[in-house]
Design brief:
It is a single chain. The protein is mainly alpha-helical. The chain has two domains: 104 residues, Rossmann fold (3-Layer(aba) Sandwich); 39 residues. Helices cover 54% and strands 9% of the residues. It is built from six helices and five strands. A hairpin with a 2-residue loop joins β1 and β2.
């Protein structure tokens, strides 16, 4: 199995799974630490862990408990599947609400992230000093910003926006 997720290949998880032997127990805090979707969790549980006779213990969350190969009844499997689906749905809802909140803030002219360290006034000072022949390194040191930050701000300001 290619241990991939919405974030791509996960080599550390792959290494842990490969190191497990029959009778071992993989202990995780929550299911979303090893799988990003219900399908991914079920594939990992059935194809990787249970096929190798490895137990899975989940410490918290809706799927908490010990999940043993050949030790589950149909009802246990169904409950685990429903719980995993609920966790995935919760994750999707959180993502959806976050995107809605960002869009609402954006519509009000608010943007997240770190404020720029070089504002228009600082940029004007830097340009004036640069026009007098001062080096970007000394200007950056005087203004208290990084040299690469100042180079980037100067380049961005020179780039026409259209």
């Amino acid at each position: 199995m290619e241990t991939a997720s919405t974030r791509g290949v996960r080599p550390k998880l792959r290494a842990v799974v490969d190191a497990l032997k029959p009778g071992d127990t993989l202990v995780i805090y929550k299911p979303d630490r090893i799988a990003r979707s219900m399908k991914e969790l079920l594939v990992l549980l059935e194809d990787e862990l249970h096929a190798r006779k490895v137990n899975l213990e989940i410490l918290t969350g809706i799927c908490a408990g010990m999940h043993k190969p050949n030790g589950q009844t149909i009802a246990d499997k169904m409950l685990f599947t429903v719980a995993a689906m609920a966790a995935e749905m919760e994750r999707d809802l959180i993502h959806e609400r976050t995107m809605d909140g960002l869009a609402a803030a954006n519509a009000q002219g608010r943007y997240g992230g770190r404020p720029p360290s070089v504002d228009e006034d600082t940029l004007a000072i830097a340009r004036a000093r640069q026009a007098r022949g001062e080096s970007v390194t000394s200007i950056a040191r005087h203004l208290g910003v990084g040299r690469s930050t100042l180079y980037r701000a100067l380049a961005d300001a020179d780039t026409p926006t259209g």
